[in-house]
Specification:
68 residues; mainly alpha; two-stranded antiparallel ribbon; 4 helices; 6% strand
């Protein structure tokens, strides 16, 4: 099953509530929300840096489709 932006968004819904997040922190947040291993692995491969919103992720995940 393909990972989608909608699925990523579902698992990171509250991740930015406390401010910007590091890439590794996003993988951990998704894991805590019960994300599939494929989602966690994808987020773990994000470039090092700080992400303020979900939109910041999409430029690094251009091949991830929006939804099903």
């Amino acid at each position: 099953m393909t990972v989608t932006r909608a699925e990523i968004a579902d698992h990171l819904e509250g991740a930015f509530a406390s401010g910007p997040q590091k890439g590794g922190g996003l993988a951990t947040a998704a894991e805590l929300q019960g994300a599939r291993p494929e989602v966690i692995e994808l987020l773990a491969r994000l470039p090092e840096g700080t992400y303020s919103t979900l939109r910041d992720l999409w430029e690094h995940l251009p091949d991830v489709p929006r939804g099903t």
